[in-house]
Amino acid sequence: MKTDIQIAQEAKMEHIRDVAAKFGLTEDDLEFYGKYKAKISDQVWERVKDNPDGKLVLVTAINPTPAGEGKTTISIGLAQALNKIGKKTWLALREPSLGPCFGIKGGAAGGGYAQVVPMEDLNLHFTGDFHAITSANNLLAAMLDNHIQQGNELRIDTRQVTWKRCLDMNDRVLRNVVVGLGAKADGYVREDHFVITVASEIMAILCLCNDMKDLKERLGRIIVAYNVDGEPVTAKDLKAVGAMAALLKDAIQPNMIQTLEHTPALVHGGPFANIAHGCNSVRATKTALKLGEIAITEAGFGADLGAEKFMDIKCRMAELKPDAVVLVATVKALKYNGGVPKNELGTENLEALKKGIVNLEKHIENIQKFGVPVVVTLNSFLTDTEAEYEWIKNFCEERGCEFALSKVWEKGGEGGLELAEKVIKTLKTKESNYHPIYELEQPLKNKIEAIAKEIYGADGVSYAPAASRALKRLEDLGFGNLPICMAKNQYSLSDDQTKLGRPTGFTINVRDVYVSAGAGFVVVLTGNVMTMPGLPKTPAAFNIDVTEDGVITGLF
Q1: Cα separation of 494 and 460, whole Å?
Q2: How many other β-carbons are positioned within 10 Å of the β-carbon of residue 109?
């Protein structure tokens, strides 16, 4: 059986201008990065912004398991299938982070015959967006420390510096560091921290901004520290906005590549859903909606994280209205949630399936709480049985969901025709009555508890003393009307990754809270979730190499 990278390397890609031409774009609309990658110029939006929107379909999933769910693979295969049946469809996906590529998860280009290409470029440096974000983030950090060194005119309290440096790599030793060691000229000695680039507020800003004007206004609102009087100090105060915007000038333009079947894909931005808002850029999604009949987008990790933030943060800010949600699961993942060990997931086990399907049930209920119709799809595996399929199908239909098997990994668009037909049926027959799960006017604690109780199924929320103080301070500073971005482990509906299925009788534990004023949300840290991951004992990097003739191997 061929690997994903072998399939991708054997693909016959079309020049990106030819893919674009089939969907109404000209060569002048593109800024080329070689033959197979391009950025969409600003003139495209100006030309299409008054077009009617197509239908917006979100692809999300149950909580991730070691068995894998294949959310991006489904997104790509579904878009290919919709184009195959004559529906002009665009993809709007996230860019992969180097951290997971060299860590444990692998890349984010899909899989099998449902991939976006060039796969190696996408999973590595792509068009340099993440490097630009990293540079802008660290320029602000450098200007902050330089300001302190050069007399500290803004009276920054060095014990209350909140801006962290970033790096797009899993590097646990950088979580907590000391900077400024050495001579007096080497800076002011203080504790500092790193986050992974996808957790940087600048990543969130890039993904939520509408244009350069909006980008600069958001950059200016970033709070980097507090002064000795407890007042916020911003990037605008440090006079850093112009230089940061210059570094991000090209990065805010959506990237265009293609699937193996030449469906156009706008791949732009890539915040993690467990530590950020987990969605691709507003600019990419809006452009896809204007250029096609249907736009397929995704949100990271399980629906309790990515989909909740898509509904409560991205759609609210960007005035988007999702028309349907595709909820991805696998038979293996459901059995894993039912307590079956990973090495026994290939054996039929209806009892474990019935026990584990409660995880899927909770996610169905959650999406329906937002007023959006749901289509459930199973990513098919050879070890699945007809009895398992039939039981899941009946379970979903009893809960008002369309159901379809997906074989896109094996067959590409052809394997997604059943799912495509169910999506079309849902779009035609079921109205979306999208609404967020909470109102912005509610106090911050009420919004946190709404997510914890309604989405996670918690009994309540406990707050560390520091978190309660931070919440009061943010409300006193005028940030109480912002949406909530929960940072939580992705493996469980709770903040304890060992609680699989549909846990009950638990409390969400909030350890800290801070505001991303530029992005426009309040970040709530729960459990032991980390904003700078570490590498596993056997990282994926062990298997990545380049042959003597320049062919990359080991990416997945």
Answers
A1: 11
A2: 29
Q: Which residues contact 155 (CB under 8 A, 6 or more apart)?
A: 227, 228, 229
Side by side, the strands of the sheet bearing 156-161 are: 156-161, 223-227, 232-234
Q: Which helix (H) or strand (E) holds 418?
A: helix 417-429
Beta-carbon contacts of residue 218 (< 8 Å; ≥ 6 apart) = 205, 208, 209, 518, 519, 520
Q: Known catalytic residues?
A: 71, 73, 94, 105, 273, 301, 381, 409
Which of the four pLDDT bands, split at 50, 70 and 90, describes residue 290? very high
What's the pLDDT at 106?
67
Spell out where 288-445 has E strands. Answer: 294-298, 324-329, 374-379, 402-406
Let me know: does 180 contact 188? Beta carbons within 8 Å: yes
C-alpha dist (Å) from residue 258 to 21, 87, 129, 252, 493: 12, 16, 18, 19, 34
CA atoms within 13 A on the CB side of 74: 31
Q: What is the mean pLDDT of residues 452-468?
A: 97
Is pLDDT of 222 > 70?
A: yes
Nearest to 103 by CA among 535, 554, 411: 535
